Q: What sequence folds into this?
């Protein structure tokens, strides 16, 4: 990947966007945040490698102590907690979403399927992490609490993605007309 200032700026802005999504938390146990919504939208804007790097940078910032995680937390202790597996899934789901969104034709159905699959991957990795590090098991009921919020995030990401895609097309048309 060839790095230039535009790519660095996009990656940095999307990393900041994910951070904002993390600190917008609803008072539930565990906290319901908008991180994955922000990752889904960033994946639409960034190329696969850039999406991966953006989320990796987000995690590294958190690990070194910058309070970028939910509840303005930072440090390795967040990664070694029960939410660590979900957080560590972010680069994979960002890469997966960005690649899939570029490969398939834009439609509400495609967006919803890609975001749902990404959410399921995050659930699987998060549950595995919990099982390995806390020796607890997550049940269907445990996931159901998240699923309600995640369905809302998937719907919001799908709606916003359709609007963003339309806006990007209009911008390209304007750029083409301005160059003529």
A:
């Amino acid at each position: 990947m060839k790095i230039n200032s535009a790519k660095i700026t996009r990656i940095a802005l999307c990393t900041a966007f994910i951070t904002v999504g993390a600190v917008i938390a609803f008072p539930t146990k565990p906290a319901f945040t908008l991180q994955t919504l922000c990752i889904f939208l960033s994946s639409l804007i960034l190329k696969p490698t850039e999406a991966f790097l953006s989320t990796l940078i987000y995690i590294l910032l958190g690990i070194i102590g910058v309070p970028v995680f939910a509840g303005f937390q930072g440090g390795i202790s967040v990664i070694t907690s029960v939410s660590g597996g979900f957080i560590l899934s972010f680069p994979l789901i960002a890469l997966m979403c960005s690649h899939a969104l570029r490969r398939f034709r834009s439609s509400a159905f495609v967006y919803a399927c890609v975001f749902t699959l990404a959410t399921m991957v995050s659930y699987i990795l998060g549950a595995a992490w919990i099982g390995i590090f806390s020796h607890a098991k997550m049940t269907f009921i445990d996931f159901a609490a998240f699923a309600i919020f995640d369905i809302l995030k998937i719907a919001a990401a799908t709606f916003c993605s359709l609007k963003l895609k339309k806006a990007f097309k209009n911008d390209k048309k304007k750029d083409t007309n301005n160059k003529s």
In short: The chain has a mean pLDDT of 89. The first strand starts at residue 25 and ends at 26.
